[in-house]
Design brief:
The chain is an alpha/beta fold and 295 residues long. The protein has helices at 8-30, 45-60, 76-87, 107-113, 125-132, 141-152, 172-180, 200-204, 255-261, 272-292, and strands spanning 4-5, 35-41, 64-70, 94-97, 161-165, 189-193, 209-212, 230-233, 237-241, 247-250, 264-265. Helix content is 41%, strand content 17%. The protein is globular and about 50 Å long. Bound molecules: NADP nicotinamide-adenine-dinucleotide phosphate (NAP).
């Protein structure tokens, strides 16, 4: 059996068309243009490319998009002051600080300094807490994208055995919480595995849906999943460069082996990645609507 490809890039395009229509309406009826600020500290090439992609998408949707790039040795206090400046800027509705930050900066301190109402990445403890109790304001973008992708491509989640590989604060933990909540595209039975799990394959082999966010290239092999499983590959791992210097990317799933066995699978690239950026746009639009008093 060959799997159905869950093309996040196509689903994301559909969602962006809906967002664009809402942005136009917000501008016409309320005179508000969504404003997104992305703060990048340093020159990490992967971070630069993520921030570029976010800005490009925001501009294409008609947002005011500002990329604020700061030197790698920016003192932590200056970064906190910059965040505060944007917290108080009425034209900025969403603030994103690109991770990872340089080692001398405490990333938790910086993320906690972002106003929860502008926290379009959904990383502030207030927003994490809201998610936990089932009253989310902003859902973290990658898990939000995964849930939308499952839902819009008709993959049943209710009652499914879901195994999440990885327990990071940005992917593993929040997707586990979201899929176990009561509600649409949720109500799943969720297991989370990590490096201290005794037998990862024992769990993944019995899962209806496997969500892999481990950061290990091609970690999940064909013999670690069951026939007919749905495989969501979050991993983006640079495994080399092409002759002309482009990054060669691999997911966390051995694609060819799992494609033969799965019912559905996300490609890398073109799967979860485009959904993540699109959910950032959705969150920023939501923040602008809150600002404009539009429900
Ligand atoms: P992370 O913070 O490094 O967390 C990785 C998690 O995987 C940890 O919980 C770790 O367990 C677990 N893990 C690592 N190796 C494992 C193994 N051999 N067996 C079982 N568990 C293992 O990573 P992340 O930020 O969640 O990102 C994961 C991947 O997704 C990366 O490739 C990243 O680039 C990618 N990503 C993609 C997007 C997107 O939009 N497409 C967004 C975010 C991240 P311990 O906790 O025990 O260490």
């Amino acid at each position: 059996m060959a799997a159905k490809l869950l093309k996040g890039a196509e689903v994301a395009k559909e969602i962006r068309e809906q967002i664009k229509a809402e942005v136009d309406e917000l501008k016409d009826k309320h005179g508000v243009t969504p404003g997104l600020v992305t703060i990048l500290v340093g020159e990490d090439p992967a971070s630069q490319s993520y921030v570029r992609a976010k800005n490009k998408t925001a501009k294409a949707l008609g947002y005011n998009s500002t990329q604020d790039t700061q030197p790698v040795d920016l003192p932590e206090a200056d970064l906190l002051a910059l965040v505060e400046k944007y917290n108080n800027d009425p034209n900025c509705h969403g603030i994103l600080v690109q991770l990872p930050l340089p080692k001398h900066i405490n990333d938790k301190k910086v993320l906690n300094a972002i106003s929860p109402d502008k926290d379009v990445d959904g990383f502030h403890p207030v927003n994490v807490g809201r998610l936990m109790v089932g009253e989310p304001l902003f859902l973290p973008c990658t898990p939000f994208g995964i849930q939308e992708l499952l839902s819009r491509s008709g993959q049943p989640v209710e009652g499914a055995e879901v195994v999440v590989v990885g327990r990071s604060n940005i992917v593993g933990k929040p997707i586990a919480v979201m899929l176990m909540q009561k509600g649409p595209a949720a109500n799943a039975t969720v297991t989370v595995v990590h490096t201290r799990t005794k037998d990862v394959a024992f769990h993944t082999k019995r899962a209806d849906i496997v969500i892999v966010a481990a950061g290990v290239p091609e970690y999940i092999k064909g013999d670690m999943i069951k026939e007919g499983a749905v495989i969501i590959d979050v991993g983006v791992n640079e495994v080399g460069k092409t002759a002309d210097g482009k990054r060669i990317l691999k997911g966390d799933v051995a694609f060819d082996e799992c494609f033969e066995k799965a019912a559905a699978i996300t490609p890398v690239p073109g799967g979860v990645g485009p959904m993540t950026i699109t959910m950032l746009m959705k969150n920023t639009l939501q923040a602008a609507k809150f600002f404009a008093g539009v429900s």
